[in-house]
């Protein structure tokens, strides 16, 4: 039997068929970076949607980690300073990668190789660090997530080739 879901203060999205979990302290820019990635993917014609913002319920299903949300926040994302926006969302997605939203002055210049985000009692996800002020976080994601290159917007049919 799988353990009960773990409630994580994060934002989860899907880009193409890839689930991405944005983590970081409160106010670090998780929602805005996730929103920017969704918008960039959609401009390139790829499917992209919100799973959950602020509260992500992570559960284990076989060998996969899944993200879902409390129904009360379905389709809602807080864009700090602008308000709460309504957007297309899906109720559950398999997670493939975690993004740690960082602030440059306080961060290491070069992070450790093969970093992973560990979710207590569930396992881990490969981890990529992205600066909260990155002008194109989807491009940064593509540069450091080579396994994503097989699909839009990360493939040759998109414009993010690295």
TrEMBL record:
The keyword Transferase applies. The keyword Transferase applies. Keywords: Kinase, Transferase. Residues 7-89 form the HPr kinase/phosphorylase C-terminal domain. InterPro entries: Hpr_kin/Pase_C (IPR011104), P-loop_NTPase (IPR027417). One of its GO terms (molecular function) is phosphorelay sensor kinase activity. It holds the Pfam family Hpr_kinase_C. One of its GO terms (biological process) is regulation of carbohydrate metabolic process. This is HPr kinase/phosphorylase.
């Amino acid at each position: 039997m799988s353990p009960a879901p773990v409630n994580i203060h994060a934002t989860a999205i899907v880009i193409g068929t890839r689930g991405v979990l944005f983590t970081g302290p409160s106010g670090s820019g998780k929602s805005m970076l996730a929103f920017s990635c969704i918008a960039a993917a959609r401009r390139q014609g790829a499917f992209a949607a919100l799973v959950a913002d602020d509260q992500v319920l992570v559960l284990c299903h076989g060998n996969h980690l899944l993200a879902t949300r409390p129904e009360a926040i379905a389709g809602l994302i807080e864009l700090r300073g602008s308000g709460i926006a309504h957007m297309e969302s899906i109720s559950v997605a398999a997670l493939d990668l975690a993004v740690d939203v960082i602030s440059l002055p306080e961060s290491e210049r070069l992070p450790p190789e093969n970093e992973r985000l560990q979710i207590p009692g569930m396992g881990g996800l490969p981890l990529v660090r992205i600066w909260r002020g990155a002008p194109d976080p989807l491009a940064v994601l593509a540069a450091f997530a080579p396994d994503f290159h097989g699909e839009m917007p990360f493939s040759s049919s998109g414009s993010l080739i690295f």
